[in-house]
Amino acid sequence: METKAADRVRPPTDTSDQAGTCGVEFVNEENVAHVLAAMPDEDTLDRTAAEFSLLADPTRLRILYALSFHELCVCDLSRVLGRSMPATSQQLQRLRREGAVKCRMQGKLAYYRLENPTLERAVREAFARHKERPR
Structure pTM? Predict the structure, then answer.
């Protein structure tokens, strides 16, 4: 890799040998400029972080995984989760607010389905990866 005049090289500020840190500070300005030009705006970053935060809760993750197989009503999901209908509905409301699931009414039954293909793929791929690599 060729070093350009615009790139900065500084000696390390700390001489300790820490794994995962650079021994010198070298900034490739061309690479940094390319990444910064492609970086989403703050609003997009915030919305994406909120979307992925849905995966951080085991109950919501189980709901998303279950819905990746079938459209299910709240009663079905409550049974799958082993939780009360109000507790299940509370999690579904969060998923709905974030646009991850969509609800349709059929008589008095509320059926939910995944509405976000990105989250569906992420959930499926994560579970498949962890099944391949047990602890």
Answer: 0.69
| CATH code of the domain in which 110 resides | 1.10.10.10
Residue 92 contacts by C-beta under 8 Å, 6 or more apart in sequence?
A: 63, 74, 77, 101, 103, 112
- Domain with 22, as residue range(s), is 8-39
CB atoms within 10 A of CB 103: 16
- Number of domains comprising the chain: 2
pLDDT tens digits along 44-65: 999 888 888 888 899 999 999 9
Count of beta carbons in the 10 Å neighbourhood of residue 114? 21
Say whether both 30 and 96 belong to one domain.
no
Task: Write out 21-48 in H/E/C secondary structure.
Answer: CCCCEEECHHHHHHHHHHCCCHHHHHHH
55 and 25 within one domain: no
Amino acid at the residue 107: G
